[in-house]
Amino acid sequence: MQQGASAACSSQRAAPAGSSTVQQRGRSVEQRSLEAGTAAGDCFSPASAPGSKHVVDQGEEYHSTWAHRAWVWGATALLAATFLRGCAKVHDPVSALAAAAAVVAAYYLADFLTGMYHWSVDNYGSGATPIMGSQIAAFQGHHQRPWTITKREFCNNVHEVFKPATPFAALCLAATSWTAAPADVFLSTATLLVCMCQQFHAWAHMKKSQLPAAVDALQAAGVLLSRRIHGMHHRTPFEGNYCIVSGVWNEALDAGGSDAGFFRRLERFVAARTGVEPRCWYPPDYSWQEEENGVVHEARAK
Ligand SMILES: [Zn+2]
Ligand SMILES: [Zn+2]
């Protein structure tokens, strides 16, 4: 996700009258593109998506502000306090085992939740969508300029996720007066991992030489999202490998990229119920105006 990205899909496509969305999904991307005409490219106008594959958007802010830091460290403190209160309730081997199992379960759940979240913002809504609009635009901007995530300072990169999680983190801490140890460590761990997904995502875009040794080792071991697995998401039309904590769910959810995959089924369900088709059913339009060396010309990313 790229905060501050100016690109935003102007509207969500509805299924053409009389068409079968299930059949639509069954056709090739190229066929669907031809049939969709300009609809496939309505997400980004030249004016709304400046920049190119090689030029960092000068309008974007990559430094962390005090507000970014306040959201990130404030929520982290709440979650750490919840986790520690949970640990303080562990007094015997059985509760220790239950707490450890809760941490593992939280790790797996967090990866799945980030997949759901990433899939939803990649495919539905627009920059004008209430509450989620900036995040939807940011994810779309990330597909166009994926390298910028590596330029961001830590709190700048993750604060958009920590911010909405803060009230929930406060609620988790308040609930520790009544909850058991496994619940405390489960909620705090899952929430922190989801909040950190943008950092795991950024690491998956960095060169091996840029990564801390521990992160490189965790990626190699499959504990954190690897560059190879996330690289597969960055292939048009961005229709798979949505999970961005560890990526352990991706293979099972994508079912080899077939129409039997979890997200394809979900998309057909949504389309059948609402008539709204996901963006990944169409190839994205990467044409935009680039002003470089005083010359305005069309740029097309690969
Ligand atoms: Zn994406
Ligand atoms: Zn990415």
UniProtKB/TrEMBL annotation:
- Per the record, the major location class is membrane
Membrane topology of the entry: Multi-pass membrane protein
**Location(s), subcellular:** Membrane
Please provide, in alphabetical order, the Gene Ontology terms of the cellular component aspect for this entry: membrane
InterPro entries recorded for this chain?
A: Lipid_desat
- Domain of life, per UniProt, equals Eukaryota
Q: Where is the composition biased (Polar residues)?
A: 1-26
Which residue ranges does the record annotate as region Disordered?
Answer: 1-31
One Pfam match: Lipid_desat
Q: Which UniProt keywords apply?
A: Membrane, Transmembrane, Transmembrane helix
Domain Lipid desaturase spans what residues? Answer: 107-281
Task: Fetch the PANTHER family from UniProt.
Answer: OS08G0187900 PROTEIN, TMEM189_B_DMAIN DOMAIN-CONTAINING PROTEIN
What is the similarity comment for this entry? Belongs to the fatty acid desaturase CarF family.
The protein in question is named Lipid desaturase domain-containing protein
